[in-house]
Amino acid sequence: MRTLACAADKAEILRRLQLVRPDSTRRWGRMSAHQMVCHLADAFRMCLGERPSAREPNPLQRTLVKWFALYVPLRWPSGITTTPENDQQIGGTPPGTFAEDLSAVLALIQSMTDARVLAHVPHPVFGRMTDAAWLRWGWLHTDHHLRQFSC
Questions:
Q1: Is 132 exposed, middle or buried (0-12, 13-18, 19+ CB in 10 A)?
Q2: Residue 87 falls within a domain, yes or no?
Q3: How deeply is 60 buried, as exposed, middle or buried, from its count of CB atoms within 10 A (0-12, 13-18, 19+)?
Q4: What is the number of domains present in the chain?
Q5: Hey, CA dihedral for 52, 46, 125, 25, is it positive or negative?
Q6: Considering only CA atoms, which of 72, 92, 74 is closest in space to residue 82?
Q7: How far apart, in whole angstroms, are the C-alpha atoms of residue 101 and residue 146?
Q8: In this structure, how many other beta carbons lie within 10 angstroms of the beta carbon of residue 1?
Q9: CATH number at residue 81
Q10: Does residue 2 sit within a domain?
Q11: Is 54 helix (H, G, I), strand (E, B) or coil?
């Protein structure tokens, strides 16, 4: 399974992120490429405890949905909604300079993989997760949005 814990998988994600351009065309959803970069940064800040998430998962989400999303070898479908604080149309961080926002998300991925103390921060849908689960989620979430922009 692909994960940010694996150096090769992480390098691939970082390479693909650098292919994103402000004018990259989305295949689904409503975010621009620049908003997507900010959305990823917000999500990684949440993982690191730098950005709060107010949502509390229910027991089904914490168990079955989490297991299915993280460990069943299927791509995440389009149309999954995010929490309001990570939604670029509602409470997400507004885009600034594209190069700076892209650099920020690259640095946040590095921080996340260096931290290895992510388990104390609950995910808004999946609840408490191990570091391994967070790093798996980080790869899947980033891959999902890179596929959204054909990167």
A1: middle
A2: yes
A3: exposed
A4: 1
A5: positive
A6: 92
A7: 15
A8: 12
A9: 1.20.120
A10: no
A11: coil
Q: Contact 144/39 with Cβ under 8 angstroms?
A: no
Q: Does 115 reside within a domain?
A: yes
Specify if 1 maps to a domain: no
pLDDT tens track, the chain, 151 positions: 999 999 999 999 999 999 999 999 999 999 999 999 999 999 999 888 888 777 676 665 667 788 888 999 889 989 888 877 888 888 889 999 999 999 999 999 999 888 766 657 788 888 888 889 999 999 999 999 999 999 9
User: What is the spatial distance between Cα 30 and Cα 81, in angstroms, rounded to a whole number?
Assistant: 11
pTM of the entire structure?
A: 0.91
- Angle at 135 (CA atoms; ends 66, 64), nearest 5 degrees: 5
Quick one: DSSP state of residue 61? I
